[in-house]
Batch of 4 targets.
Target 1
Amino acid sequence: MDVKTLCLGLLTQGAASGYDLKKRFETCFKSFYSAGYGSIYPALAYLADTDLVTCEEISQDGRPDRKVYRITDKGRDYFTEALASHQPAHKMRSEFLAMIFFAEFIPPDRLNKLIDERAEELQQILKELEAMSDTLAKHPDSGVEFVAGFGQTITRAALDYMQQYRHLLTKETSAQRQAS
Amino acid sequence: MDVKTLCLGLLTQGAASGYDLKKRFETCFKSFYSAGYGSIYPALAYLADTDLVTCEEISQDGRPDRKVYRITDKGRDYFTEALASHQPAHKMRSEFLAMIFFAEFIPPDRLNKLIDERAEELQQILKELEAMSDTLAKHPDSGVEFVAGFGQTITRAALDYMQQYRHLLTKETSAQRQAS
DNA sequence: CATAAATATCTCAAATTGATATATAACGGG
DNA sequence: CCCGTTATATATCAATTTGAGATATTTATG
């Protein structure tokens, strides 16, 4: 499931420009899949090349042309087939956890700041996921519902854990006591 | 926190070859940060170039030379400084959740298989994290402890959620009933 | 009235992935 | 004893992705 395929997937929800698609990534996939313009625009160019989407250029005065992409029947087939056959990978890169792993090299103040900042990020994500669940009352969709609930559960678990166990990190070690 | 910096970090735990380092990534950072040879070997070459590590080539009969890397004082300083100043990013790419998001395009059998397989992966990760916690009894380290506990908490939350709410996905929708 | 944010596309160097190539030893099953 | 698999060990490379920046205008906001 590369950015190409997911652009196709998001286009099943309706025609969109690259700019729009970026926003859909941010609202729908926030918390578990990110994509920047650097991958979205080349993806759309490729999809148009291979007739999985069509591109309608709408000229606007002043700004660059707005290019609206629409999924084709071939594209829909391709997407369904991708969902049916692709083996999903799970990749994560948490620099936060990587740094905390080396907590013994980090002064307590800095550790507290790192945790507080990460907690704030998670609170933000939680808020957005809750907003997503609210929207669903009007447009029910089991997949979206499951994913939004999943995100909320995980995020709450992360927040709880951090608050409950942060003291583990800032308790002075014998090494740190000697240094001070 | 790129692979370069984390190689340096792992080398604070003792000298290692690229091959060893890969295994350390897999045991220590499993579940939250992965790195392949394709990034580790270039990283080590760069670190050696900039005197953050030294490289000792140990010739072995038959196999290629084993190159053992050791962190230098300069490297240790660089790493501590990186931990002190770097803003940690959190990136995740869950193709699993991305696919589930589009559950309405996926037949129930396939959905069940996807969930079962993901659950198995999570069980496996959980087992490894628990093994990590056990090891800690002998070599206590607050950072490692926190991270291992964090992973366990999140993983259990994910597994629980999946089992509790998977029925949301495989309940037939009106669209699917019509198709059959 | 200035200035920040939103709209909109695109490029590019750098980092990373994932697969592959190379070569040997060790281990277990048939 | 042979065969396949796993472990040891390094390295390269195309494809993908990131993250930042270039460009240019309109629309809010203070």
Target 2
Amino acid sequence: MPRRHNQKSAPSQVDVARAAGVSTQTVSRVISGQSNVRPETARRVLAAVEELGYRVHAAAASLASGRTRILGVIVVSTARYSTSAITVGIEAVATEEGYSVTTASVADHATRDSFFDAFDRLERQGAEGVILLAPFSFLDPGMDTRIERTPTVLMHRLTGGVGTESVVDQSAIARLATEHLLSLGHRTVWHVSGDDYWLESRVRRETWEQVLIEHGVTPPPVIPADWTPESGYRAGRTIAAIPDATAVFVASDEMAFGVIRALHEAGRTVPDDVSVVSVDDIALAAYAAPALTTVRQPFEAVGRAAASRIIDMIEEREPTPVEPIHPELIVRASTAPPA
Amino acid sequence: MPRRHNQKSAPSQVDVARAAGVSTQTVSRVISGQSNVRPETARRVLAAVEELGYRVHAAAASLASGRTRILGVIVVSTARYSTSAITVGIEAVATEEGYSVTTASVADHATRDSFFDAFDRLERQGAEGVILLAPFSFLDPGMDTRIERTPTVLMHRLTGGVGTESVVDQSAIARLATEHLLSLGHRTVWHVSGDDYWLESRVRRETWEQVLIEHGVTPPPVIPADWTPESGYRAGRTIAAIPDATAVFVASDEMAFGVIRALHEAGRTVPDDVSVVSVDDIALAAYAAPALTTVRQPFEAVGRAAASRIIDMIEEREPTPVEPIHPELIVRASTAPPA
DNA sequence: GCTAGGAATGTTTGCGTTCACATTATCGTG
DNA sequence: CACGATAATGTGAACGCAAACATTCCTAGC
């Protein structure tokens, strides 16, 4: 049985109290920055803390106080850009607010039960709130009971959430992209979708369909893909085989790279023969050939918003109004009017 | 003061014990899977656990046992591919081994003190081991005392680590890349470096220099950049202005995208006029135009190795021999013999 | 000088577990 | 059938801290 690695167990409040000639309670007060302590006393305590190298024992503190200040994040284990960018935002806010973040990851394409497991792991760890960075719906049965216990925020637009609310408007993204292509004069817009395992993939597809219908055009069949550039490449070959396809809405920048390569290999140039608009605006989007027209998602802001929202819920304070985070169309060189 | 959100506080071992008609100790034994329990008793306990929805209270358990099974990871808050890919590996092993992962992030270009802060936050949280996913050297003074207390693993090759060892051989990467270009017949190799804040950036540069010298060529001046495609683009313009530059070793794929775009804009084609080799093999590398010749770093494996190493250290077991993780040169279309 | 009242500090208790040890049940053996 | 050995279970204490309440100190006002 491995035990603590610090040979002589770490100094405790008692040690500090003794060294400073006060009670542990006073030490506790100084540490947690309470007011009713004489400056001189506080100085003595702080000095003792410094000298002994005392650190609060988080487990003990949270056992006593009932608070852990732990934020849980459930992520699907993928090195997708969006996920890690969002995490950066979450982490930043958490640290600012004195929370720590623990992650529970779940295999890609994991089942509902894996999510429950992840959620349970976080709860066991004492997470006071959970951010679901995952293709998951609150409407799922087993989820309700968990959400009741632990405040939860979801990254996806979803109606009917149980008093919880999401931060990104996925359907605005699809609308922006599709209407851009339409307004350029394209008759119709094809769509390379992301993996349907992901909620946003479905939302984008549905919105794309709806926008087309609003404009009186019958949506062509979806070309399914799975977020990877490879799958984009395959989809691109399919599109290249469709002579009258002049505009494609690709659900992610990464896939767009694949689509464009397939198109070029088939002798169709972008944007002269085919316009491509995608989603995310990853750092490389501007360095594709041609540079990608894309709908930017402000991922870090999304992460920040999610984190402050969940902290608001935890601390039961009025939710700081999240100024709406707008996706933004960045027009570059991969779209043009039809020939 | 917000308290627990579960209105009626969660069931404890006592509740389970009462429901199952046993002592709390027995409940504890069943939960932690010890052997000395009659199957029938275990079943009763498990039933009670199930019915009450009991979950171990991690804070209480770790206070009593002295163990937290928490792994700390210090990351620089960047959405760089490498970082998130490594994290995936860490997370996977941690979960397998029953550890949870908490992250402390640090601003890009943060000072040494920010790292100490992050380390301290993790220690306070009870991290039993820390993985440093950061441009940091063990040789730093303040670090020694921390490492003594808490087992630490660094992602970077470094001689003189305090009994700790790293997992990737950054210098092998640079050697692979530079020698590939040389063996193609290029007279010399230019280098676009990453941000010198990062250790691997420096190691790659030094190795590149050394390899050139070994081959009897005087290294040209380094072209400094900072990992971003934009900086790669700027570096690319510099290179385009050097008529006899025929080969470039770029320290990351992302920068290579920028370099290539600048080169093309200046009328120099890749690989006919200039060969480009980079590092990482991100998903998009194969979809650059031309497809990138690059040195693959098996990031997830690196993460897995780091995690199992740190767990070995925590549990004071013989370190599972990490089969050496070799970087691998992937030859695609961005390199060719000089014209 | 005495008292009220607030600021500063101390004491006690309990958070939910696990540990170390004590006790009781169960079984095979001579 | 009693005995010891081993398996199964129980008991008390302790982990390090913060909450609640209790006490002491100081100051100001009359």
Target 3
Amino acid sequence: MTTKRTSRPLTLRDVSEASGVSEMTVSRVLRNRGDVSAATREKVLTAARTLGYVPNKIAGGLASQRVNLVAVIIPSLSNMVFPEVLGGISAELDDTGLQPVVGVTNYSPSREDAVLYDMLSWRPSGVILAGLEHSLPARAMLDNVGLPVVEIMDIDGDAIDTAVGISHRRAGAEMAAEILAAGYRRIGFIGTHMPEDHRARKRLAGFEEHLAQAGITLAAREYYQGGSSLQKGRELTERILAREPELDFLYFSNDMIGAGGLLWCLEKGYDIPGKLGLAGFNGVDLLDGLPMRLTTTDARRVDIGRRAARIVAGKEPRPENGIVALSPTFLPGDTIRKG
Amino acid sequence: MTTKRTSRPLTLRDVSEASGVSEMTVSRVLRNRGDVSAATREKVLTAARTLGYVPNKIAGGLASQRVNLVAVIIPSLSNMVFPEVLGGISAELDDTGLQPVVGVTNYSPSREDAVLYDMLSWRPSGVILAGLEHSLPARAMLDNVGLPVVEIMDIDGDAIDTAVGISHRRAGAEMAAEILAAGYRRIGFIGTHMPEDHRARKRLAGFEEHLAQAGITLAAREYYQGGSSLQKGRELTERILAREPELDFLYFSNDMIGAGGLLWCLEKGYDIPGKLGLAGFNGVDLLDGLPMRLTTTDARRVDIGRRAARIVAGKEPRPENGIVALSPTFLPGDTIRKG
DNA sequence: TGAAAGGTTGGTAACGGTAACATCATTTCG
DNA sequence: CGAAATGATGTTACCGTTACCAACCTTTCA
């Protein structure tokens, strides 16, 4: 049973009076800072617990000019990729006293500005945000904040402070190489039409460049709007194959639509990977367990989160050039012919 | 190009000096509060923009005793269900000036305590947290905070202040009713073994009670540890059917493992829904596009988020009895025989 | 024309903590 | 045994903003 509570919120002073020591000493006890005798510590803790006192970080932060928050700004929570990055961040932040605060932009630059402004107004001790492309106002805010700023996911471009991620151009190129090595030649692409998804764009660019070096151009492409789902993958796969029946490979911009395409092809009796190969992107293990494992690229999401968090937390130094490059990993799966 | 910046962070005073008015007036302009002439407003905004001033909510919050944050405490981000709830919350909070701050507990009561304590120390203007079961310290903290506290997802139990959700007992019972009505009799259950997932437990209880009323008991059950995935669904389905080949229905505790089970059964050539029926729970539309649509119950995730947010934001009054009961909706899909 | 009313601006005192330093008691050690 | 080091506690001055009230300047209208 807690004590009855007046309407006035509790402050250090209440704990101080209840335990017969100064507010300063109470503060020291509650933060485990400085020397306090075991006896007073005990008195104070008992009093605090009895009253149900919860420290006020607003006041504390103002006084100390330090806030244990890390702003994390990501485009979306509705596919599996960013929650996994978050998992990495939060795991690595766990023993640092730092706490992530998440803001979602829905891939909108103006929302990114707004979210960033809002987060900075809390004076966090670091910022982690997705991508290298930001509006002018956003860059202006970040250029001189005097905090660690880590841009994640992508390293194809210039970082404001530090970037942690993979090269999506390279991921695209490597997938192209694997596909060509496996002997496929009439290749189609299915992806989302989101001008703000720069990583998908760069992946496709790297993919096409590599094809071009082998004298090959994409035989077909199909774009869609909105979120990715199995259903979307089915529809687009049907459409692209109706239009270009001669295709022997489909490169999807993510695993979810890739899986939809795979299911559709299997139902229609396509010979996979013999006559038709399929590949996605991300390497989400949620989809393990489909009739065949989809060929894909592991985007190193958890690692990206971890490394970014380590840098913000000061567990690991910012590299000289500001770039932490992780390697996208090709996962052969079952939907590409074995070399 | 922004102006060069000294190391000292900007304050209202800087903007005040740059625009030739008092700090108080600058504050009024930036908050759109009180009367300010158009001319000064313009001057101030220009100065603020030029300097790149970002208000300090720490100081502002302390002075005004108001903070535009809503604490949202959920068990997990790694399945689709809580992100969807979050989507509902954030959509409804969008035009209120309130901002959700998310804490994740990983289904651990002690982490819930810690996260709650931490969030309360920021003096948010409301709390939304999953479930009705909380530790004693957590209840003590919440009983007298003097803020709107909304417990979500579940309404089978006592709310601290307000609860918004569905009855999982009812959801389970209704699914049992549908299954029996469709003529299935030898029913197996596959679910996660998480003592802290009270909703899954209540669902199963409601399910079994309803079966019991018809004189039927579960013919088999299979539990697993850890996250849900298609793969897990496959394995457990294989196991339970190996053990009890006579089963004619499988009730899964969520759609993801249900989908895994479905894929496995289809591969093995089971006659679905003729000889074997399957059902999951949640109604995640991510999985639309499987070879058959899994029978399931829509848990009303987005609505729950919206209603909870509306109550916290004061857009909608707290109901007399403190309970906002939404109806779980049966989604027949293709994996149960039509009545 | 002068008082009232309303719009616009500024001064001052909080808000609830913490940093930095001061103070006093106790221990350590040459 | 006295000086210096160390431990334990308190005092004071902020941190950057907003609430509240006072002051001033117009405009309105009897």
Target 4
Amino acid sequence: MPDAGSQHPDAYSDTERQIFDAALQEFARKGRDGARMQAIADAADINKAMLHYYFRSKERLYDEVFAFSMRRFMAAFGESLGAAPTFRETLRVFIDGYVDFIRDNRAVMQLMVSENLAGGSALGRHLRRMQEAEHALPPRVLVERIEAAVDAGEIRPVDPHHTVLSVISTCLFFFVTEPTVRVIHPAARADWSEFVDARKEHLFDLIYHGLARP
Amino acid sequence: MPDAGSQHPDAYSDTERQIFDAALQEFARKGRDGARMQAIADAADINKAMLHYYFRSKERLYDEVFAFSMRRFMAAFGESLGAAPTFRETLRVFIDGYVDFIRDNRAVMQLMVSENLAGGSALGRHLRRMQEAEHALPPRVLVERIEAAVDAGEIRPVDPHHTVLSVISTCLFFFVTEPTVRVIHPAARADWSEFVDARKEHLFDLIYHGLARP
DNA sequence: TCGCATGTCAACCATTTGGTTAAAACAAAA
DNA sequence: TTTTGTTTTAACCAAATGGTTGACATGCGA
């Protein structure tokens, strides 16, 4: 499973990478405030002082991890969207690529969710900055594909914004609640990876039929 | 908006209720570890010592808040599911009721998500206990309705477990990521409540067409 | 070899955090 | 009024937490 776009900022040294990974994991699980610097240091197998040597403070460390993760998360939209002839194929490819991305980068998504739970102040700041810089956010590309498919009469006339939100919801939510899903869903408990693949099928089937012309 | 099932355990005094509410809010936003006892005390407008007078420790407070919230959350499935003649109506009523429940109890859902992010150890414990006691978890009722609708030929032959998970995903996820949605989605920014209602329509439309026979 | 920049660490510090205590209000029965 | 039990509070404490420091290592060009 090769990464599209590296896991860490390019200029990082080995130590910085270790710290970054450990911090991402810890922030993703415990949230900005719940995370413990000592826990990050332990997971990165370095002295706590190193954290402050490389990333001044907890706040700065969080900011760096969050900013990079958000760029990565946003970039995933475009990367998951190949050039397919039909909308049907476009949807299939997107679900496949996007779900794979989350499977390989669960912590990134957890961090995004965690920020939302906490009120999303950092998130709002970064989003607005992105919006100003690029004039529109990445999910836009998906919105446009759906608009085009509607215009071409390939699918029913649906609200593209709502539809995109629904697609993302279904692709992400079962990862968010993975522990619950593992307990409740027999198939997920037995083999998570297989379950994820089955879920791709189901999602495509459900959403495609939900959009297709009668 | 009347509550089906009270917001707090019945036997609570006024002070306990204040504490419970404040704790739920704080735990929902910051997570089990990120939450601060002082912040809960401040929000409940009481002395910090009262927290320990009524709920011994942070751990016990969290357990009590979590256990009650989870029962409430699970009960919402059944409560949102009226007795409708067709599956079409059943789906409509469920989405409507369930989304309303989350709108009125966002913190409860946030707490569930937060637990999942953190690994869901408390969640797993409680779920398993419920499973043993009741032989099946509440989402079961929805699964059964879908199975019945499939058997009756009212909808396409879909996997009911996957379908339920998809319905729940779409009903919950936009609440989970409300801060993000508010920034990205123009309509949500303007009037959230109206957006939620529009979303109910969209979700019903998308999912019903996704399930209906061609 | 020396000097200097970069990394690394144990020990330390100030503040915050969960939690306790002993005394004071308060209320209702005796 | 006295007594008895509950509720509330300010002051306090030990441990944990984010953050600092000064010494020590390591590599490398001069």
